[in-house]
Amino acid sequence: MPQLALDNVRALDLTNGIAGGYCAKMLADYGAEVIRVEPPAPAAEKYPDIDRAARAALNLHLNTNRKSVTLDLEMERGRELLFDLATRCDVIVESMRPGTVEGLGIGYETLAERRPQIVMTSVTPFGQTGPYRHWSYTELTLFAMTGAMHREGLPNRNPLKYGGEIAQYFGGTAAAAATMSALVGAAMTGLGDWIDISILECMAGHPHQIGRRAPFAYSGEPDLRIEPRTSSAGGREPYAVGTFRCKDGYVSFLPLGPRMWPNIAHMIDRPDLMSDQRFLSPQDRTDSRAELESVFQAWLDQRTRMEVFDAAQRAGLPGGPVLEALEVVDNEHFRERGYFQKMDHPDYGALHYTGLPFTLSDAPRSQPSPAPRAGAHSRRILTGMLGVSENEMTALIDQGITSDG
Amino acid sequence: MANDNVCAAGQGPLSGIRALELAEIWAGPFCGCVLGDLGAEVIKVEAIQRIARGSIKPPPHASGYPDSDPGERPWNRSGAFNALSRNKLGITLDLTTPRGADVFRELVSVSDVVFTNYAFGVMDKFGLGWEELRRVKPDLIALFTPGYGNTGPYRTFRSMGMVIDAITGHTALRGYPDMDLSRNSLVHHPDAVAGATAVFAICLAIHNRIRTGRGQFIDLSQAESFMPHLGEVYLEHGLMGRPRSRRGNRHPAMAPHGAYRCAGDDQWVTISVSSDEEWRRMCATMQMPQLAHNPKFETLPARLRSQDELDEVISRWTRQMSRYHVANTLQEHGIAAGPVLDCGGDAYDDPHLQDRGYFQVVDHPDAGIHLMSGPIWKMANRCEVRHEPAPGLGEHNELALGDLLGLSHSALVELEATQVIGSVPLEGADMGGVRRAAQRGLRSAGD
Fold first, then answer.
1. HSE toward the beta carbon, residue A300, CA cutoff 13 A
2. Strand B257-261 versus strand B216-219 pairing type
């Protein structure tokens, strides 16, 4: 009977941001036992009503499949229990400011002395070294510094962030990959590792950034914001590149070069344009892009997103509908693949959660569990795994060192 | 935790793992260079019948080539290609011929991993689908990552990162809130996410194989690997009953939160203030303490209401100074601020990336010496990872097919004479998709 892929891995989740949290989630979603340590009394929000749903949504999303233990790390006994817990884990994912884990008594060197195969993944915005290592950050700060923001938006306006928390999730995915590679190394050699993830560096090494940086290094090619429909690559059928309005919303297209001109002409039921003297060469079509765009747009205006999608596929053209969040959940393809997982949460009810980023032929999908309340597993883990007596457990709760969620 | 030891390629947590890359554009090639960084031996398999290394006959003075000179072998001098091909070996094989596919099977029999981002069905058309690969190497790990995955109604659909960006809901969140979505930029970020996720997936499968002795097939949908990066957005829609609106650079719980113009041409700094306390510190830093007591800006709800005016006040301050000066000054007071940097000179000049040794001098035999991007993370117990230059087209044919598979010199000559392998692209090799090449192959095989 196949087992969950990572059911022989135990990880400690000491993260408080998206990148570290997503790294821990990837391990948890594939079957690792991931124990999240949280403070017993979280700091109160000054404006609890502002952005409340978004905060709840983020917690629900990031903390699926977790066990939650609360520990007050300001207290010596809290730190002792943390150490005991850490030395029973294969992986520590932490996102505290550089130097903090050492202060808590669970620095990599200390843990590796006890457990050489341990893997510690430190996920921080700028890494453990370098002049910005103590800088404050938000998604906006990071995204700006990675190179991606400078070319997002229009040339005469301010550069733009993407939607969502893109840099942090990308850093988290890289952190999970690094962690997994170190687990392979540990399984082969018995020696784990301490991984220094700088979200900035992950995004600076993002394929699009290195793909843009090399032409600069080779020939000084600048990396600029450009107007839509003016493909910088030239001759890539620019009148049909990008996002377009249609009858009930928007659609996006990316034809793969001049060889797709016949596909486009057939899709819009205008094969006659292929023999039109004005549109013969790629350069002709780039020069006449405004005219072609209006023909293209007139065809789009008569059709819904799904009609356009269907026509694009029949014509062999990469194109698709711009969907809003719940339309994605409801999409026929993702439904057919059983991608979104409907889960009931005692506080938030039934919601659709994103599923696994990939599936494995030789390991079953785990039965997902929703984000636990803080401290939901304190008792089971402190008494069951660490051998804390019931009497001490009561005392720990009384002293506020832990809580029973 | 820096480790000053530099060591040869092939050392790292994936030492001893051999992976075959059948990949183009972003997702697959990025996975390959990270596996290479980790010490795996990555063999990139291309074909002289069709190459994705830019045009094979670019115009003279084309940009993106060293000194804007495509040279005699432009396919070995493309900046974007070379950047995405570090730490790999490169061979050519025409998989549309029975002999090419046979040689590939021999390679599979001595490999651990095969990964591809070819469109759905291409590997089957080569006769190299999962069942066949597994027959050749029972404990093989294979990862196929078409845009929509390997099952479901859209599995055969043409897709690019830009389209995945649309269908997953990200495009609807991007752009200037006062403009139509048709003014949005082209964003292909899901490709990159698929590439990074593929590294995780392959390492996970290797880890699993150590325990079970079994390989497996990994179905990685580029869309589905990206969707968790927007996970809270779907849940928020469910909780609120309406979709998240577009925000541009703004944030519903932080103000100021934006990009502000600085002195110079197209120079910007981003600033995010996440509490009233930070706002008071920012006012002190701007030497405008009276602003902290202005009721229009005093509390977060007030600042969220007066954002246009707030942005004006901040812009008046920032535009006198350089973006680095603003960022450094605010960061000294614990406020999240950072310059907007481009991928060219700005990144190279950044003191932090320099201090961490992110860039490396790379000497490429066909492209010359340049400062190139290094690996994306550091591991304390491993040697420093070098950026070994991208392979030339077919550069390692002899190494992989001769030394590794034991093909004789005359066999290699025969393969070259029949154009199964080679190091110069054939006429028209940069035309046509993989799918078309596969169809052409089936026809030539009399199918």
1. 26
2. unpaired
Chain mean position to CA B70:
24
* CB–CB contact A333 B153 (8 Å): yes
- Which chain B residue lies closest to A30 (C-alpha atoms)? B204
Residues of A in contact with B120 (CB under 8 A): none
CATH of the domain at B30: 3.40.50.10540
Q: Residue B212 and residue B206: Cα distance in Å, rounded? A: 10
B200-to-A24, B17, B61, B240, B324 alpha-carbon distances in Å: 12, 15, 40, 33, 35
Nearest residue of chain B to residue A312 (CA atoms): B158
φ/ψ (deg, to 5) at A270: -130, 55
| pLDDT above 90 for B6 | no
User: In angstroms, how far is CA A143 from the centroid of its own chain?
Assistant: 13
Indicate the residue of A169, A241, A244 with minimum beta-carbon distance to B229: A169
pLDDT digits (tens, 9 = 90+) for B246-269: 999 999 999 999 999 999 999 999
Type of residue numbered A228: P
Q: Show the DSSP H helices in A272-371 as ranges.
A: 282-287, 289-301, 305-314, 325-329, 332-336
Task: Give a yes or no: residue A83 inside a domain.
Answer: yes
Kindly list the residues from chain A whose CB atom is less than 8 angstroms away from the CB atom of residue B248.
160-161
A231 CA to centre of own chain: 28
Average pLDDT, chain B: 93
Region A162-173 average pLDDT: 97
Instruction: Indicate whether A368 belongs to any domain.
Output: yes
Radius of gyration of the CA atoms of chain A, in A: 26
Distance CA B401, CA A272 (A): 50
CB-nearest partner of A324 from B16, B169, B379: B169
How far apart are the CA of A389 and the nearest CA of chain B, in angstroms? Answer: 35
Q: Which of B374, B79, B32 is nearest to B196 (CA)?
A: B32
Measured between beta carbons, the chain A residues lying within 8 angstroms of B15 are 188
Give the model's pLDDT for residue B56. Answer: 86
How close, in Å, is residue A286 to chain B by CA atoms? 17
**Nearest CA distance, A258 vs chain B (angstrom):** 10
Residue B239 within any structural domain of the chain: no
Q: Check if the beta carbon of residue B155 is closer than 8 Å to that of residue B148.
A: yes
pLDDT of residue A232: 56
Is 90 exceeded by the pLDDT of residue A367?
A: no
R_g of chain B computed on alpha carbons: 26
Asked whether the ipTM of the predicted complex exceeds the cut of 0.90, the reply is: yes
Nearest CA distance, A159 vs chain B (angstrom): 7
B374/A205 CB distance under 8 A: yes
User: How many domains are contained in chain B?
Assistant: 2
Determine, for residues A336 and B153 on separate chains, whether the beta-carbon distance falls below 8 Å: yes
Residue B1: predicted pLDDT? 43
Are A271 and A153 members of one domain?
A: no
Based on the domain organization, do B170 and B57 belong to the same domain? yes
